[in-house]
């Protein structure tokens, strides 16, 4: 029987073997079910990510309980991950509750302050065998309540990244190399040379945020250059919602959630499966 895991072994294995573990943002029972069911069918390890507003909406206890039930039902490595948390005390609370993986996002702070905040989280999380991801540089776009204007985005500096990893003791590093949360105006462009430089300077697994709406070939290329965790939210939300909207258009009197949620789940499932294949994590559970 599998338990809720940290991302430590999951990401190290991905790093050794040259694939990425997908981190899917989930929101409720339905989206969590789709993700774990599909990952189990494809024998993929999987990370269930929740932003602060998702955890506030669904309830941390409920997410933990649902993920535990999933881990008991399916024999694949499952982690639940706090995505873009900024408040240290909230992270501590959820680590106490059973989350074994967290991101502390202090990317809006100065370099020194960012290190100080992240270090505190690392010290706490490691006592409980939980893993910590942090971001250096800053992604643009919108992720739930987190909105970063394009002028405030900053690419990760490879030399600083090395110092950052050493001083904070983080388990994985989120890089800013041109992706943004949400959809892109035009084509997504990634600074792959920068990614290579970062990979040469640091040894922890690297994380790609904002992977929705990025061409598959580009995501694969980033994985071949050292990305070990790929975060996807928007590309799941859109097909889920579109399918539910279509169902209501065709069945305006519908009122049974078990019926109107089903097409949303089905549409989302196809995307989850596709992303797992792009990550190359199928068969790696
Ligand atoms: P997207 O919504 O662009 O897929 O971003 C997801 C993400 O990076 C979660 O942290």
UniProtKB/TrEMBL annotation:
EC number: 4.1.2.40
Swiss-Prot/TrEMBL cofactor(s): Zn(2+)
Pathway info: Carbohydrate metabolism; D-tagatose 6-phosphate degradation; D-glyceraldehyde 3-phosphate and glycerone phosphate from D-tagatose 6-phosphate: step 2/2
Main enzyme class: lyase
GO BP, sorted A to Z: carbohydrate metabolic process; D-tagatose 6-phosphate catabolic process
Superkingdom, natural source: Bacteria
Keywords: Lyase, Metal-binding, Zinc
Keyword Transmembrane listed: no
Binding site for dihydroxyacetone phosphate: 182, 210-212, 231-234
UniProt-listed Pfam families: F_bP_aldolase
Isomerase as UniProt keyword: no
Protein residues bound to Zn(2+) 1: 84, 181, 209
Active site: residue positions: 83 (proton donor)
Residues at which Zn(2+) 2 binds: 105, 135
Cofactor note: Binds 2 Zn(2+) ions per subunit. One is catalytic and the other provides a structural contribution.
One Gene Ontology MF term: tagatose-bisphosphate aldolase activity
Protein name per UniProt: tagatose-bisphosphate aldolase
Source organism: Clostridium sartagoforme
The organism's taxonomic lineage, starting at the top: Bacteria, Bacillati, Bacillota, Clostridia, Eubacteriales
